[in-house]
Specification:
- Helix content is 73%, strand content 0%.
- It is an all-alpha fold and 543 residues long.
- The radius of gyration is 28 Å and the shape is globular.
- The termini are far apart.
């Protein structure tokens, strides 16, 4: 009788897990499908990078004599920054136009949110056209530039765009036409290199020599700063990828030598003498009576990762499903609360948005750790002591080398991903927020979140618990691969799945080899920190 009740409880338990899994699968699918219709965040980053290159290309060295100077030629810069920027802007513009056509077919006039999104995309498209026209004008394609600006003069999107387009058309017309308030309209809609080019044309035609001289001095200061940022980003990327390739080659050679040495050495007579499966019911218990010994189990027994897992597969399933449920619950509850309070997220500045993002993630960390402790307390008296976090050992070397090894791999996969998805697939919403973080408080808050909280919690969950638990029932390579894919899917963007899967596998490899979560935490923190600093540098070109 007691046995029957236990079986029924087990069946009800698994039924609940199946239902929750179906809900999680549905929610993840919806998020991934919706991300396909969103522009890839990388496209916007490419525009920021193009703006930075344009600014840097205007730098001219100071010379003693009065010989004419030429625009900077540097191997770390594009051969023709204007042509490269024009290509990037046209690609994003084409993607935005596709989005607008899709929105016009699917959006309802009664859907205020959809109409607002369509209005924002239309305004963004018009802003792109202003800049594309300037790039064309600087490429001596004046007729094409005027043809690009002309529709904007009658656009109903914003009056400011129409005024700026009219001013630009007047500046490049033959003969030129200087409109009243041209400077104000140009400064309100343009920034960076684009603003400088338009104002330089305006000051030259209106013979405002003092203003032109001041503009050129400021332009050289900005160009010098941009050049330093470009050289820093590109130089460090080149060096990092070079070091990464060397580390990968070293790992491959060492792995080949270890396999060669292992094949020549006599096998251990009792490789699984200390290997014991966790307690579970007979229906799900693996068969250990087979005559053949699985090599993966031998390896796991020797590494002792699998031996530390005391729970059945159902508990792994339970923890991950409950965490995803908690993730969606927290992620949805905060926007609902904001809506009830009548707050418009788009009206908030960068700092309030940073506070919201930080609070959201902090709640997720607390809830996630609580789920882990609650689930493991039946097997471990002190669950946190079970996680492999030790200050001794070579975790620092593994974390640093893993970071450099991940660079060429992730960049290569990201390029392949770009070919597959094009400009679709969405992106991390934090990217734009980091770029907009102009004040130290906002930047510090976001940095703590991405470089401290995220690496610590995500490594505890995905590598410390999930990967380690999987090694009890799967080969090491299978545990690393599955944990890497789930880690990527948890970011809920199609554009990130391939690159983050590779990064997740590198994190898993580093953890499995070092047997210390501090190594993968360091790698994760270095990766997020590098991305964060790169975004800050790119964001400075947009201000």
């Amino acid at each position: 009788m007691a046995n029957d009740q236990k079986i029924q409880q087990q069946q009800r338990y698994r039924l609940v897990l199946i239902i929750l899994t179906a809900i999680v699968t549905f929610l993840i699918s919806v998020e991934l499908i919706s991300s396909w219709s969103q522009p890839k965040a990388q496209s916007q980053l490419n525009l920021y990078q193009s703006d930075l290159l344009l600014q840097a290309s205007e730098w001219q060295p100071v010379v003693e004599d009065e010989a004419p100077t030429q625009t900077l030629s540097n191997p770390l810069l594009e051969a023709d920054p204007v042509a490269a920027a024009l290509k990037a802007y046209r690609q994003v513009r084409s993607s935005v136009q596709t989005d607008l056509e899709r929105m016009e077919k699917t959006a309802s006039s009664e859907d205020a949110t959809a109409m607002a999104q369509q209005q924002n995309r239309s305004q963004f498209r018009d802003n792109l056209d202003l800049r594309i026209g300037l790039l064309l004008a600087q490429s001596d394609q004046v007729e094409d530039a005027i043809a690009t600006w002309s529709p904007l003069t009658t656009s109903q999107t914003t009056v400011s765009n129409a005024a700026a387009a009219s001013s630009l058309m007047g500046l490049w017309s033959d003969p030129p036409q200087l409109l009243p308030n041209a400077q104000q309209s140009l400064q309100s809609q343009l920034s960076g290199w684009f603003e400088d080019q338009a104002l330089e044309r305006l000051f030259t035609l209106s013979q405002r020599q003092d203003d032109l001289t001041t503009l050129q001095i400021d332009q050289q200061i900005t160009a010098s700063s941009a050049l330093v940022r470009v050289v820093t980003i590109n130089g460090l990327t080149l060096v990092g990828n070079g070091v990464g390739v060397i580390i990968l080659l070293f790992w491959l050679v060492r792995s080949w030598r270890q396999r060669t040495g292992a094949s020549s050495s006599p096998p251990s007579p009792h490789p699984l003498q200390d290997f014991q499966m966790p307690p579970t019911d007979a229906k799900v218990a693996p068969n250990l009576e087979a005559s053949a010994i699985d090599e993966s189990q031998v390896y796991l027994a020797q590494t002792s990762l699998a031996n530390s897992v005391l729970w059945p597969p159902d508990l792994i399933w339970q923890v991950m499903v409950l965490w995803f449920i908690a993730f969606f619950a927290v992620s949805l509850s905060i926007p609902v609360l904001i809506y009830v309070l009548g707050i418009k997220p788009t009206a908030l500045g960068a700092r309030p948005q940073a506070y919201l993002a930080f609070s959201n993630y902090a709640i997720l960390v607390v809830v996630g750790l609580s789920i882990l402790i609650w689930s493991l307390k039946g097997f471990l008296s002190t669950p946190f002591k079970w996680f492999r976090i030790r200050w001794q050992g070579n975790w620092l070397v593994w974390g640093m080398s893993g970071y450099f090894a991940a660079l060429p791999l992730v960049i290569l996969i990201a390029l392949l991903n770009q070919k597959i998805l094009g400009d679709q697939g969405g992106g991390n919403p934090l990217l734009e927020l980091i770029i907009q973080s102009h004040d130290p408080v906002t930047a510090s808050l976001l940095f703590i979140m991405v470089a401290v909280l995220a690496p610590v919690f995500e490594e505890i969950l995905f590598r410390g618990f999930f990967l380690t638990s999987l090694t009890r029932y799967l080969p090491m390579w299978g545990a690393i691969g599955i944990s890497g894919i789930v880690f990527a899917v948890a970011h809920l963007n199609l554009a990130d799945i391939l690159p983050l899967s590779v990064l997740g596998c590198v994190l898993g490899f580093v953890y499995s080899r070092s047997r210390n979560l501090l190594a993968s935490m360091l790698l994760h923190s270095l990766w997020n920190s590098g991305s964060f600093l790169s975004l800050l540098i790119l964001g400075s070109s947009a201000r």
